[in-house]
Design a protein that fits this description.
The protein contains 16 helices and no strands. By secondary structure, it is mainly α. It starts with 5 loop residues before the first helix and ends in a 7-residue tail after the last helix.
Amino acid sequence: MREIDGGKIVIYLCSVALVVLSVPLVKKFSRTRGKNPIYHAAFAGVALALLGLLPDYIQNEIFSPGGVLVIGTIVPVYESIVAVCTPGEEDDSAWLQFWIASGTLSYCTEWIDEVREHFPSGGEHWYEIEFFVTLWMLLPFTDGAALIYDLVTEPYIAPVAQKMKDKVEGWISVILTMVNTSYLYFTWFLFMSFPEDQRRFAVVAVGTVYPLAASTIAITTKSDASDDTFWLTYWSCFSLLFIAMDYLENFVGSIRGFYSLCLLATIYLFLPMFDGANVVFRRVLVPLSGQYENMLIRDAYLVRKGMEASIPAEYHGSVFQKAADVFVAPKQKAS
């Protein structure tokens, strides 16, 4: 086990505090969908200035796997919780766009530590790049995630996803049943055959590849917003699981069974047969973030939408009024 480095903990805690304190300021900016080049130029200038002015020992800790996880997790998770707990689906889609871009970046660069180990000069500045790319996707005035969605996901992936959805819509329940059972046992058998040092990559792959594909189909098919919400809750939960795994593996990663537990937790989160992400989200993350009352209001909003869809339009006025009276009427004491 590694000893705890007090200096690193102080730097990370200060970074988290700075991120938390900057949230109110950042939220004052409206999302631009990345269409203003002046903001991109200003962001690049600030990034270069920080690289030139920050001391090396601070850069080594901030521009690191831990630093990337902090900047790419704290604000996105909180804002995702707020989005899910407020009426309307537009903010759900905006943050799901971020998680698709961020998840793709994280998975595609999982091998970078191997490159840095064997070719130190080749990956010397990678974490500076990943840190600022994550920040570029996150900030509302650069809004890189939306720009990626508009330029890549929507024009090239959306048509394919829509055709796929139209073809398999009638078979979704059957496919999910097959996936829930066969995927679980196949993944576990394959995972247990790996050496322990390869299981971390397997956990990341299981937690990102299928969820990324499902999230992309969800966000590019507009008929049902509930799947956007589900995958937004998943990414909120999985990102926290991933940051916990990334930290704890420094101390207990060599213990056999550590990554097995991480894999089980990942599968529990996203397979519909467990609905784990929804359970963890509603019972843990929402209360901790202080959004429980907003979540109940969102649930009431969804009930209203369901009533609007199922009740003929000519009865909306009278039925909704009577339904409102049921909610606001004082409880009658049992005689």
